[in-house]
């Protein structure tokens, strides 16, 4: 299968230029002017951007959580990804009690077998840090191609500081990266007790129970562990101005603290929890939505380079039957999480680029090029000869009103319902094969179930 894309504007993380592009099989073979080789498909991309497919390195596909499980599996989740211009997904792989880390990788890979429509990889999450599990880090990095490891500082399956230190030391030896969900569990437990006594249990109090200071303290403590060990961390879903300040403080001192944020922390604020009825439950996620001040600070953090990646934390639970079943009388029982994998690129373009908050090149960096570099995806993340032909032909003027019925995520709502975006994919390619296209009113999936493959990633090489 070959593909010739003519007349588009190729966008990189540092610039843009007009050129034709020829794809042979999985790879970008030639970039140049007036290319005229015969091809199975010829696309006129005049007036359109040719972007590298977005990479979402933060998803929870089919994850068992809070008495239920995240509703998108590897098939529905990667179909939604494709329709949103996401061509690589790096999913969390939660180790079970007593399970080996390497067995956990094999187990989650088997869940994906024959189901994914775009390429994927896994981040093992260390939940049962026995010494023999820490010793598996070397194999996970060097043999299994999974060089990033998630830990939680909250929830029942959190790890303690001593474990964090050991993991930082072990990952440092082999080029691993520790990803941290940073919230102080004791602050949250204390707030929960107070709110319980006061009978404050509606969704709004989810945000009150997890104040900015809980993130600030945890980021600061995790950064100190990095300073101690000389290792590196990546803070997932950074949400607050205060947390960002701690990231910046460490980075300014040369400590390798990296950070990711998500569209919900850039665009939504805690007022959402006050929506009528039980609607606030739609936004119950951890960390919670913050204030507009934090939204603005995080955009600044992207531009200053203190936030290197934008991801989704895609973790969908239906509003009817999941969000409202468990937690009607107590915010603590509402499954934490929200859908987002399909709206990542459209939101970042429309709210970021079209509104002048970030450049198009910065968008490519935080969605693709920088993400590939952070996570060792050496064949992904850029429109360059030799890279996988994971491409989005993007019309920057196409309008679309986000609405759940026109999206593909397996969930009954979107937190961005009714928001009009400017800029949508025209066509999305995964290793040279078209997987999604604009049909005039919405995106259609046109790919092949099971064509996505597991990608072995490289150790961290610096950022
Ligand atoms: N936060 C969420 O909101 N959902 C999944 C896990 C997490 O840390
Ligand atoms: Zn998390
Ligand atoms: Zn998450």
Name a few traits of the molecule.
463 residues; alpha/beta; Urease, subunit C, domain 1; TIM Barrel; 2 domains; 9-stranded mixed sheet; 5-stranded parallel sheet; 14 helices; 32% helix; binds zinc ion
User: Quaternary arrangement of the chains shown?
Assistant: single chain
pLDDT averaged residue by residue: 97
Tell me which CATH architecture of the largest domain applies here.
Answer: Alpha-Beta Barrel
Overall geometric form: globular
Q: In percent, how helical is the residue content?
A: 25-40%
Question: Cofactors and ligands present?
Answer: dihydropyrimidine-2,4(1H,3H)-dione, zinc ion
Q: What composes the largest sheet? A: 9 strands, mixed
State the end-to-end CA separation: 35 Å
Structural class, from helix and strand content? alpha/beta
CATH class of the largest domain: Alpha Beta
User: What Rg is obtained from the alpha carbons, in whole angstroms?
Assistant: 21 Å
Strand count: 19
Number of domains: 2
Task: Name the CATH superfamily assignment of the largest domain.
Answer: Metal-dependent hydrolases
Percentage of residues in DSSP E strands:
15-25%
CATH topology of the largest domain: TIM Barrel
């Amino acid at each position: 299968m070959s593909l010739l894309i003519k007349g588009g504007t190729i966008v990189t993380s540092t610039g843009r230029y007009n050129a034709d592009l020829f794809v042979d099989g999985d790879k970008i073979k030639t970039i140049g002017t007036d290319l005229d080789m015969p091809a199975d498909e010829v696309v006129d991309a005049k007036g359109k951007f040719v972007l590298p497919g977005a990479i979402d390195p933060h998803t929870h596909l089919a994850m068992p959580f809070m008495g239920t499980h995240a509703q998108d599996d590897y098939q529905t989740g990667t179909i939604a990804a494709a329709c949103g211009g996401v061509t690589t997904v790096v999913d969390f792989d939660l180790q079970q009690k007593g399970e080996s880390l390497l067995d956990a990788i094999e187990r989650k890979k088997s869940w994906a077998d024959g189901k994914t429509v775009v390429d994927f990889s896994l981040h093992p999450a260390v939940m049962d840090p026995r010494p023999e599990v820490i010793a598996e880090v070397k194999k996970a990095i060097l043999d299994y191609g999974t060089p990033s490891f998630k830990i939680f500082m909250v929830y029942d399956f959190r790890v303690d500081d001593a474990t964090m230190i050991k993991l930082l030391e072990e990952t440092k030896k082999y080029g691993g990266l520790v990803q941290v969900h940073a919230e102080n569990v004791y602050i949250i437990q204390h707030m929960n007790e107070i709110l319980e006594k006061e009978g404050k249990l509606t969704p709004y109090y989810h945000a009150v129970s997890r104040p900015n200071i809980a993130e600030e303290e945890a980021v600061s403590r995790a950064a100190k562990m990095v300073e101690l060990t000389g290792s590196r961390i990546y803070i997932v879903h950074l949400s607050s101005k205060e947390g960002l300040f701690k990231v910046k403080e460490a980075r300014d001192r040369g400590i390798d603290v990296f950070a990711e944020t998500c569209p919900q922390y850039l665009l939504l604020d805690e007022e959402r929890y006050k929506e009528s009825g039980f609607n606030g439950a739609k936004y119950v996620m951890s960390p919670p939505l913050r204030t507009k001040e934090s939204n603005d600070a995080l955009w600044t953090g992207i531009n200053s380079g203190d936030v290197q990646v934008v991801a989704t934390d895609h973790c969908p639970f239906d509003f009817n039957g999941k969000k409202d079943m468990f937690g009607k009388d107590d915010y603590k029982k509402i499954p934490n999480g929200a859908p987002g994998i399909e709206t990542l690129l459209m939101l970042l373009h429309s709210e970021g680029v079209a509104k002048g908050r970030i450049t198009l090149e910065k968008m490519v960096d935080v969605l693709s090029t920088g993400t590939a570099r952070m996570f060792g995806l050496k064949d992904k993340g850029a429109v360059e000869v030799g890279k996988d032909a994971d491409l989005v032909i993007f019309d920057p003027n196409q309008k679309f009103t986000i609405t759940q019925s026109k999206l593909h995520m397996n969930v009954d709502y979107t937190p961005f319902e009714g928001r009009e975006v400017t800029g949508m994919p025209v066509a999305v390619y995964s290793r040279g094969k078209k997987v999604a296209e604009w049909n005039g009113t919405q995106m259609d999936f046109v790919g092949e179930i099971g064509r996505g493959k597991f990608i072995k990633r490289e150790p961290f090489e610096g950022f």
